[in-house]
Each structure stands twice: as C-alpha cells, then as structure tokens.
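check this one:
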Amino acid sequence: MWHNLRAMKIAVRLTFFVVSCLLWAQTPPPAPQQPQVSPQIKQVQQLNNEGKQDEAFAILSQMLSADPKNYEANLYAGIVLDLKGDYAKAHTYLHEAIDVAPADHRIQALRTMAVSYAFSCDLPQVTDFERQAYEAQLQAQKPLDAAGTANELARIDLECGDAPAAAKWYQTGYTTAMHAPNLSEADKDLWEFRYQSAKGRIAARNGQKAEADADVKIAKTILDKGKLPPNQAPFYPYLAGYVAYYNGNYQTAVDELQKADQKDPFILVLLAQAYEKLGKQDEAMKLYRQIMTINAHSPTNAFARPLAKKKLGLS
C-alpha cells in the first residue's frame, strides 16, 4: 500500500514536470528589444531633416568629445558633413564608424560610406565599400539584400558615367536575386522588372535608342501583369522619362517624370534638366531649390544635391 502511494506521487510529479517542459517549449521566446535611439541622436535627425546641419554637428561634436568611439555619433557626423558638402571630413568620421560598428551595424556603416563617396563620384572607393557589404550579405546568406547592394552600386556607376561597370553590377544583382531560394513568382517578376529597367537606362545612356525603347516596353509588360507591389508603379514613368531624356525627347521626359515620385531628388534633378533643355529656366531653378530642401543621405540625393548646389551658385 505504502509502495503504491509513493509510486503514485512520483508519477504525478513526473507528469507535472513533463507538462511544464512542454508548455515551456511551446512558449515563444520574448521578442528582442529594438535598440533605443538616444535623445541626442533624435534631435540630430530632426535638425538634419530641417536642413540645420551646423546645429546637428554641434550636438554630435559634444557627443564625440565625451565618447570618441560612439558609433551613431560618428555615423551621423559623416552624414551631416556630406550634406554640408565637406566630404573629406565626412569620410574621417565614417571610417571611424566602420571601425567601431557593432557587428549587426557594420553593413549599414559600409553602405553609408559608399554613398558618401557617391557625392563626389569616387567610383573606386564606392566599389570598395559596396563590395564589402555585398560579400558580407552573401556570407550571411541574405542573397536578396546582397542583390540590392549590387544594384545600388550599379546605379551609382551609371550616374557617375561608368556604364560598363553598371551593366556588370546590375547583372550581378539580377543573378544573385534570381538564385535566391524559394523566390516567389511575384518576386521573380519584381527582379525582372528591375533588370529590364536597368538595361533600358544603360542603353539610353549609351545612345542605343531602339534597345532602350524595347527594354521600356518589356518593363511595361511585366508591370501590366499586375503581380508587382503597388509601390513599383511610379518607377515606370521614371524609367520612361529617363529614357526619353537621354533619347533627346525632352517634352516626353517632362510629361513622364511629372508622374513619378516628386519627393525623389533624382527625379526632380532629371526633370529640372529636361526643363532646361526646353528653355524653361524658371521651372528648372524652382526644382533645384526644392532639391536643396531634401536632406536624405542616399544615392539619389548624392546625384542630385551637388548639381543643384552648382546650379544655384551655392558650391
């Protein structure tokens, strides 16, 4: 009797232990906390967005005096200085940001440095840092991220005048993406659309009008299938306007570019140049002034901002 009672108690305890383990195993771990942005960095971001780069840099200088290896402070110092046009000084801070970057922020630092060099079209440096980011993303088994980085490098190459390098890196981005595992049909269409867009723009820059027009038509066919995300639709008038501009059809370029994203500084700078070709200088200058209110640190602004400053006599 005593032995039976003891056995029952052990069985109950064992059952409780097993159930507890199962419940614990089925409970998802807590979501990782997102890194907190410091109040100073939030203030820097706000000031930069308002075009107050000097005030933003003053805050960053204080932060770096207290901690010279502060990753965010070095990163944003480089960004702010690029927008001011002080590229050499920006590179100093961004090199430090790369050196002190946490492992999960290193790719961000590398790509920010690449964009920094895009402001002055220093293609060897752009390629060096974009390639490092691309290879790190491949090693981390993030092929679509790597493909995006390859495309970013290709676009910088194209707008800085190296069409052969652009063709090479757009091909790399396309191939990398299309070999990603479990790629959906919609995603395949997306990358095909991007690749045809790239081919069309390269052909237009090379003076190959017929090839450029053919690529635009293929891109439109892909878009009309209706499988692309809605946010891709504005990229078609950008493509059509870009090709029209470099094919010498300036009024068509204006008509198409006006349908594209009017917050994109590169579209605005292309539209401004089309207006200039049509003799509409006032419209062009209005757009150049609008570009100078955009304070993004991106390839599109790296292309647009220096030209806008030059046109406005600010550089």
About this structure: The chain has 16 helices and no strands.
